[in-house]
Design a protein that fits this description.
The protein has 32 helices and 11 strands. By secondary structure, the protein is an alpha/beta fold.
Amino acid sequence: MQRPYTIALVGNPNSGKSSLFNVLTGLNQKVGNFPGVTVDKKTGVSRISDILSANVIDLPGTYSLYPKSEDERVTYEVLLNQENALRPDLIVVIADAANLKRNLLFCSQIIDLKIPVVMALTMMDIARQKGITIDTTGLERAMGVPIVPINPRRSKGIAQLKKAIADIQQTRPQPQPDFIDIPTLAGPWLQDVKELCNLESNYAALHVACNYTGLRHINAARRIQIAAVLGEAGFHKARMQAEEIMQRYKKIDGVMQQCVVVDSPMKKMVVSERIDKILLHPVWGNMVLLFVLFLLFQGIFWLARYPMDWTQQGFAWLGNSLANILPPGLVTDLLVNGLLAGISGIAVFVPQIMILFGLITILEDSGYMARISFLTDRIMRSAGLNGRSVMPLISGMACAVPAIMAARTIQSKKERLITIMVTPLMSCSARLPVYTILIALVIPDKLFLGLFNLQGLVLMGLYLLGFFMALLVAKVMNYIVKAKERTFFLMELPVYRAPRWKNVGITMLQKGRIFIVDVGKVIIVLSLILWGLATFGPPSKMRAVEQQYATLLKAHPEQKAEIEHQHAGAKLEHSFAGIMGHAIEPVIRPLGYDWKIGIALITSFAAREVFVGTMATLYSVGDASASKQTLQDKMRDAKREDGTPVYTLAAGLSLLIFYVFAMQCMSTLAIVRRETNSWKYPLIQFAYMSGIAYLSALFVYHVFK
């Protein structure tokens, strides 16, 4: 079987690489892992011409071919290993025209690997705003590769790029000469390394000499041979790398003089730079950041209120209708109070999940998310981290699993480990359904200072509480975890752009679908299991309950409705679920929780949002009138044995604080195990988060009791 034509997309971070990948592949994408590592691999299929379809690989962004993080090392391995199944037939180098000199360094390194190259110039509009004019024809001659200006956000230049790719695939041009004289730079030993590893290019041999101990495809025997050759030649890695970069920049300076014209010696200040004078200011920038976060959480409550109300009312109406139409019995109870109650616990929070991801996508697409990293670098450093840790922490607001995986870009092992250990303290979207229903129960829906929604302020406070606890724990771990390495946070700020509303809409729909399909399956299965546990119990106890209430009903027929309601509660309490809840009640009673909340704490370890589905099932099972009320109404009406409400302000706040800090997610523990390659760290994480959650909830309950 013929190997499919493979194209790799490479480039600096924020150069437009991911946008080009999305344009080329559309919906024909999939995400997996590169072989042998846990770094994400984005691949897709693109129709290049009438006769050519190609596999497109979006390689992790990197500034040069000398890797510093695990993500960059993956790009390095794919491009240098000639036996790698993923090694591309052609490389598209995406270069930022507004920062051309730095991008040409990386491009020249790629060209010297002797793999066919097409250079795609992005950000041409920003370059024009800065007064930069690029002679693309002259630049093409100087670099020796086809150069195509593109704007992937507007799908401009894509047809020309595909034509350039198709032409190279058909003509198979001869490799260009080395961009710099590598054999003279290195010396006679270069040919020995090239022959030992059977390499096609001088530059690949130079990189093997510099990094042979870290390259996975170089076996032990060959490493010994390479070490002997380099030892005899007196090879010095740092000196060689420095000399190479200096020679490349010397030649690139000549290319820039010939092909690039700048209107004035001083770059024009583009709109983004003017905006950054305010948004990156130490005082005003942080005030704007707090205001943006405030709008984010206010928007979640304000925008989602109406679709959530409609969804709740719709499911209450549907449950009531089915209960009236279907004959009484076990099947009807399973359908209405098991399956339908579980589905309603998922569907009602879909609007909030979609709105949260939509607003986060707007922040990312506009370029403001990168500014958040820059602004928070100082506070990160006070906790022993740096600005690179901000992106995983912010991503943790969506889901801790990809957020922990995003920590791979952090170069320092110590900072990466600490980031992984504290990221689950950030309130993820799975906590949002729990926060929403509890805030609605115990926090009045009114305006604070006549302007701010009080429930939205409490929600923002919970997210900030998780963030500051993450910083506090990171500070403690910084003293415990010992490492001598010191890192610096350098990042390129993308220009501000209007959000791509189509991209925002697609993201919202995708995240809503993922929540319904992936999380929904877990919630529905657990809801059905819970229905069984809450409906059935030890036969002797259940018979005793039936006899007791049958006698009571015969003695007081005029109190039928009240007795049937008490009967349903007694059956639930003596069911298998009730027995489980009562077993852990002594542990959770000091926090203000009853046995039903105890069951929800157990089941929500599968996923935090299962709490809502669990409560929906427990407050519905066996109660014929339950389908007429929303879950919020049922929980508000819940009473203890002494007649006091279950969800008081103290109990509600205690439960909110518990879910802010508790490690209630099996998937997160699993990904921490995979990323750290040890069970020690997930167990430590589970222990410290559970301890903080319990003690904090205990404190809050007794303060507000």
